[in-house]
Write a structure and sequence with these properties.
single chain; about 180 residues; mainly alpha
Length: about 180
């Protein structure tokens, strides 16, 4: 959420205000926002990959990863041809979510996933992020120091809210089928 909301500030902080034209800054901001929206799916892909390895389903994981990589290449090619430069991050976004959903669907063969708990966890996290996002509504100067302070307050508020909501770890939502 921080990256999506503050993409332009991040770009300006890293590259400086004189490195980009207004259009280039807007394009780079858009790309960063799309890639940031794909990060949760990418994180779940890594988590699910570890689940497959732990269950000794590495051959299935390899097949899924190769298939997903091929889909990403095809999506990237066609979307870039149709939409231009914005097609590349959109293809990555779509690939990440399809790959993650495929891994989750196939993981059901050897593990039980508490989808209700997962959705509840997602709801709590979304509400928490929304509440913490109020930090960015407080008017301050647009300096790097103010952005850093807001980010620290955001992170502290996020973890405090999750603690107060008694959020369960995603690990508690996965149990081996033979454990029951």
């Amino acid at each position: 959420v921080f990256i999506v909301v503050n993409a332009e500030l991040i770009i300006l902080t890293i590259f400086g205000s004189t490195s980009f034209t207004t259009q280039a800054l807007q394009n780079t901001t858009t790309v960063l926002q799309v890639y940031a929206a794909a990060l949760p799916a990418q994180a779940l892909i890594l988590f699910m990959a570890k689940l497959f390895v732990a269950a000794r389903k590495t051959q299935l994981l390899l097949f899924i990863s190769i298939a997903a990589g091929a889909v990403q290449l095809i999506l990237t090619y066609f979307l870039a041809m149709q939409m231009g430069w914005i097609g590349v991050p959109i293809a990555t976004f779509l690939y990440a979510h399809v790959h993650m959903l495929l891994l989750m669907a196939l993981a059901r063969r050897f593990t039980q996933i508490d989808y209700r708990g997962l959705l509840a966890s997602l709801a709590v996290t979304t509400v928490t992020l929304t509440i913490c996002g109020a930090v960015y509504l407080v008017p301050t100067a647009d300096s790097l120091t103010d952005a850093a302070v807001k980010t620290i307050v955001f992170v502290l508020a996020y973890f405090a809210t999750l603690y107060l909501a008694r959020e369960r770890s995603i690990l508690t939502m996965l149990t081996a089928k033979n454990a029951n």
